Every structure is written in structure tokens, then in C-alpha cells.
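Our collaborator T.R. sent over the components below with a one-line note: 'Predict the complex.' Nothing else. No constraints on interfaces, no templates requested, no preferences about which chain binds where. So this is a plain run: every listed entity goes in together, and whatever single assembly comes back becomes the starting point for the next discussion.
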Amino acid sequence: MQLIETINEMSQVATAAVRRNKTIAFVPTMGFLHQGHLSLMAHARGLADILVASIFVNPTQFGPNEDLDRYPRALESDSQKCRDQGVDYLFFPQSQEMYPDGWQTTVNVSRVTANLCGKNRPVHFTGVATVVLKLFNIIKPTLTVFGEKDYQQLVTIRRMVKDLNLEVDVVGQPTVREPDGLAMSSRNVHLSTEERRSALSLSASLARARDMVAAGARATAPIIADLTSFITNHPHTNPDYVSLVDPETLEDLNVIETGALLALAVKVGQTRLIDNCILSVS
Amino acid sequence: MQLIETINEMSQVATAAVRRNKTIAFVPTMGFLHQGHLSLMAHARGLADILVASIFVNPTQFGPNEDLDRYPRALESDSQKCRDQGVDYLFFPQSQEMYPDGWQTTVNVSRVTANLCGKNRPVHFTGVATVVLKLFNIIKPTLTVFGEKDYQQLVTIRRMVKDLNLEVDVVGQPTVREPDGLAMSSRNVHLSTEERRSALSLSASLARARDMVAAGARATAPIIADLTSFITNHPHTNPDYVSLVDPETLEDLNVIETGALLALAVKVGQTRLIDNCILSVS
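Returned assembly:
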């Protein structure tokens, strides 16, 4: 595995690969890698000739009062994990090179970013879309693999790819969970023992909603009320949203007809966690 | 020359060319071609293996009260002109395919679009940047040629290319003028004989400003006042702006130190015309 730190070198390596008609799979990350990231890499490894991963804690997707400075970092062990997953090139750019003085161009995906996390994190998805487009242009992937845990991010990237006529296949991969159900997240490291217990209310809510829908519940308001009170009965929890939305447009649903995305964001202590699942009506 | 009407076909032709390591030069236009466009094509023809031109009257770069419906069209004679310039592929997409239902992604280049035409045409450059990026992604050019007549557009595209890490060489080409000095524009066709005479006040202003600077004028306010009154002394003229700005940032200058872009936009009758030149202090 080769560690690449400059845009120029990464771009040259990618261009040379494209000229040799090699396919490139790309997994973008913010580092502090866990099994969720590694499952994306393992899946990507089987899909292309060359596997590129990136680690970049992208400042433009954090709001002014968010946890950019607190976001955990671990380059050395991340490197080893990437090597173990068969990554060929690990791209690790510097902020100053990604966003030099005078930088002023952003990509805005409007409607699918209006609800859920986009509501309280207005700059977040513009930051995500912009950095992902920059990385695509540098790395020139044939395909890219994103986790379904960040479902709104996955929908946003799919929409951007379609709308800007990019020729990148966007592959989604299921959320990887701890044995007790907690969705893997780099932010889990911040949880105290007690908060860790309360964090289980997120994945438990998904199961609870599945049961309610299986039992015939279709109106979303009572399901949301039930889950919100279920979550807030756990100490240190403060829901940002509990939403049932159309899985493509991410617009709120009043009634579940064929299916819905259940999406949750909950502050547990100081740590904001998200989780989601698709609820299908059979 | 091959006329291509679908995104899919254009994209396949371009991908095949890239795979054969061919270079592609691209000249985007809104059609109704004049010598200005043809000079871009002639220049581009010498720079790459394959020359692609596009004709697309892009609806997203026109504001609600602008002249989209009135914009002149002439596909048949445009085709012949492209053929004569050695264009290999003329891409002529349909609006509905460029902007299908659900389309919602835009590219915003912020600071260089804030002044000049961007001031009174707030959606214009977002429309331009977005469609040009889409066309780049479909056509995969090695280089692209833009006219300096639309100077702010050229600066915006250069900025977007740099900021989004696109690997496209952006080449600017000088404005082509009628024998009497009027900058070529598809919109000139709308001018009455009397308006046509008044329209000469734009190019005459450029000469006038060059003389003032050669004579030692450096403060911008008196130059702007002189040119504004010179223009408005011609019938049917209504200046939108007369500006002296930094040629890179396009921010207003109080004093010309090393050089400036003089940029004009003037409504002549119902037709909005623009012109510009670089004023250098030697």
C-alpha cells in the first residue's frame, strides 16, 4: 500500500490507472476506522482492479459549534487497517491543499438535504457534496462505496452523481453493528459507560418500529411519539429528530404506504449519534 | 461531423476517445454562431485530436425576466459553420434530458460572481457553472476554449476548475469585433439601426479609458463618471454597470495600480450588451 499526501501525486496515479483501462474503487472516510469502514473496503476490494481509500477530516462539513476539533484521529492504526483490507493507495490530503486561499466553489444538493440532519446542520451536506466531488475528480473512481448508516449522505451523493452526469457507480453497504446492536461510529469512543447503555435506545427503536409496522401501524405520528418517548426514557438522551420519510426524496411521510426510512439523530451526553432502517410494508 | 443529441451517446463517444488516449477540445455555445464563436473553434481545432462543440440554450442561466424565449436560434446554419471549422462532434442536448424531473444539484462559485453581471443576474453564474460542469462530465475535455468577451464567465469557470480539482485546461480567446469595433454577440441581431450606432459607445469607451490611463489617470471614480456620461450621451442607452475591477478577484478598485479590468454592461433599447478590456499600467 502506498500512502499519498499530495493531490498532484494522487491525480497522476489515478490518471495513469485510467489510461491502462484499470477500474478504480474508492472509499472516502474521515479516519478513526472501525468495522463499518472496513466492511466498505472489503466490499470495494472485490469490485475493481485498484482500491483507493481516503482519510480526510473535512472541515467544511462541520458547523461552527460542531465537533471538528474533537473528531478522533489515528493515522497510524488506520494505515495498518487499510493495508489489511487490500487498499492499494491511501490518500491523506492536507486541509490547506484541499482548500487553498481563494477557494470559493461549492456544490449544493437542495431538496434531499433539507430534512433530517440537513435541518440542524445547514452547511453539512454542502461540505460533504463538495469534498466528495473534489475527491472524485482527483481519484477518478469507476465506483465508490458508502455506508447506509449515513443514509442521507448516500442519497445526497447518488443525487449529485446523477444531476452532474458523473460516471461513478455509487454502491451502498449495510450498517455494521456491535454485538448488542449499537451502530458502529467513530464517535462512539466518546460515550461513557452509562451513555453507551443509553445509546442502545437508537437501535432498539428500529426494532420497536419494525414490530409496530408488522402489527399494522401505518400513521407515522403515533410511531414517532412512541419512539421519542422510548428514547427519552433513557438517561442523557436528547433526540434531534425521529423521522419517517420517503426513502428517495427524504420528505416526511404522514402514512407509511409501501415503505419508509426511519431515521434518528439523538444526542447522548455530548455525542450526537444517528441510526436508520428501511421499514417495508409487505 | 456527427450531430449528437443524447447525453448517453455523447458520453460514450467521449469515453471511447479518452480510452484511445485522444485529447478532446471543447467549445460550449448557446448557438446562433458568429465569428467570435468560430474563432474559438478555430483555435481549439489546433489544440487537440478531437473537437467537440455544444449548442445548448441553457435555461438555468436566464433569470425569470430575461430573454430566454427571445434568444435567437439557428441550428441548421450553425451546423454548417461547425462543420466548416472542423468540429468532429456537435452536441445538441435537450433541456428535458439535461434537467430531468428531480434535478436539484447546483454549483456555486461565490466571490468572483458577486460583482458585475452577478449583481443584477443572481442566478446567472450558478446556471453557467452548473451546466459547464455537466458538459465537462459528459464530454471529458482535455481543454476548453472560452471567449474573453464574457470575462466574468471565463474567470468563474477557471475558478470552478481549480476549486473542484478538474483536469481541464481553460483557454481564453480575445473578443472578435465588427470592423467598426462592436463586440460580436448573438444579441446584436436585435439592435435597430439607431441602437446599433449607440452600441458603439461600448467599444469607444474602452478606447477612451485606455487613453485616460495612458495620460496618467489612476483614480477609478472619475474614469467611471466620464465613461458613464459618455455612454448615456448616446440615445437609447442605459448602463447597468461601468466598473474597474481586479482582473482576478473582480472586486472593485479605487485606484489602478498595476492593471484593471474595465467591464461594461449597457442596455441599448431592449438589448443588454457587454464589453470589456484589460487596462495595463506600464
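Summary for T.R.: Chain A has a mean pLDDT of 97.
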